C-alpha cells in the first residue's frame, strides 16, 4: 500500500465529487481514485455536480474548469457554501494563468492541466493547507503540452483543420503534419 493510499485510509470522510464532461476521463479518474480509497460521485455537467453537492456535500472534489453548461468555478462556490473545509482541485485543458488565479480565489487548493495523472490529483487533494503541492514527478514535455493544446483546439473546432489552423495562427499543412503524427512523450 502506498503512502498516498494509506493517507486516504486515515481520512474520516472519503466522499469525492469528480466533474468532467469528458466521459472517458471522468470514469477513468473516478475508478483510479476509488481504487485508492475514495468514494467518488461522478458528474458530467455543472447542473449534475450542483445537485450532487446539495444532496451530499463532498469532502473532496476534482472539477473541470469548462463545461458545456457552465464553469467549474460555479461548483467551487456551491461546495464552499455547503462545506467550507472541502478540498477542491481544478482540472483544465486550458492552462491560463488568469483561470488558475480565479480558481484559487474561488477556493480551489490546486489547478492541474489535463491530462492529469491520478497520483498527481491525489497529491494535490491531500496536500496540507500550509504547504504547496510538490511538482509532478513526470511532468509533460513542452512538445507534449503543445500537442495536447493543439488536440484540444482541434476538438473544439469540430475537427475542422482550416478553422483550427486559423485559431492557432498556424499554416494548415503544418497543422495537418502535426495531427498525422503520434503524441510526443
UniProtKB/TrEMBL annotation:
**What are the 4-aspartylphosphate sites (modified residues) in this protein?**
64
Q: Which domain of life is it from?
A: Bacteria
Task: Please give the biological process terms from Gene Ontology that the record holds.
Answer: phosphorelay signal transduction system
Q: Name one Pfam family in it.
A: HTH_8
Q: Which Gene3D superfamilies match?
A: 3.40.50.2300, Homeodomain-like
Presence of keyword Phosphoprotein: yes
Q: Is Iron tagged as a keyword? A: no
Alphabetical keyword list? Phosphoprotein
- Tell me which residues make up the Response regulatory domain: 15-129
Q: Where are the transmembrane segments?
A: none
GO function term, MF aspect, one: sequence-specific DNA binding
Q: Kindly give the InterPro entries that the UniProt entry links to this protein.
A: ActR_PrrA_rreg, Bact_response_regulator, CheY-like_superfamily, HTH_Fis, Sig_transdc_resp-reg_receiver
PROSITE patterns registered for this protein in UniProt: RESPONSE_REGULATORY
What's the protein here called? ActR/PrrA/RegA family redox response regulator transcription factor
Q: Where is the organism placed in the taxonomic lineage, from the top?
A: Bacteria, Pseudomonadati, Pseudomonadota, Alphaproteobacteria, Caulobacterales
Amino acid at each position: 500500500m502506498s503512502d498516498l493510499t494509506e493517507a486516504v485510509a486515515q481520512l474520516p470522510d472519503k466522499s469525492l465529487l469528480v466533474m468532467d464532461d469528458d466521459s472517458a476521463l471522468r470514469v477513468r479518474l473516478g475508478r483510479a481514485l476509488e481504487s485508492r480509497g475514495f468514494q467518488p460521485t461522478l458528474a458530467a455537467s455543472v447542473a449534475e455536480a450542483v445537485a450532487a453537492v446539495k444532496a451530499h456535500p463532498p469532502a473532496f472534489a476534482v472539477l473541470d474548469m469548462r463545461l458545456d453548461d457552465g464553469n467549474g468555478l460555479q461548483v467551487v462556490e456551491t461546495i464552499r457554501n455547503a462545506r467550507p473545509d472541502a478540498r477542491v482541485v481544478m482540472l483544465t485543458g486550458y492552462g491560463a494563468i488568469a483561470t488558475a488565479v480565479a480558481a484559487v480565489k474561488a477556493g480551489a487548493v490546486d489547478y492541474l492541466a489535463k491530462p492529469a495523472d491520478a497520483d498527481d490529483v491525489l497529491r494535490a487533494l491531500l496536500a496540507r493547507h500550509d504547504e504547496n503541492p510538490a511538482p509532478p514527478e513526470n511532468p509533460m514535455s513542452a512538445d507534449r503540452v503543445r500537442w495536447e493544446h493543439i488536440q484540444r483546439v482541434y476538438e473544439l473546432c469540430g475537427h475542422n483543420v482550416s478553422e483550427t489552423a486559423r485559431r492557432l495562427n498556424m499554416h494548415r499543412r503544418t497543422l495537418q503534419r502535426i495531427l498525422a503524427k503520434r503524441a510526443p512523450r
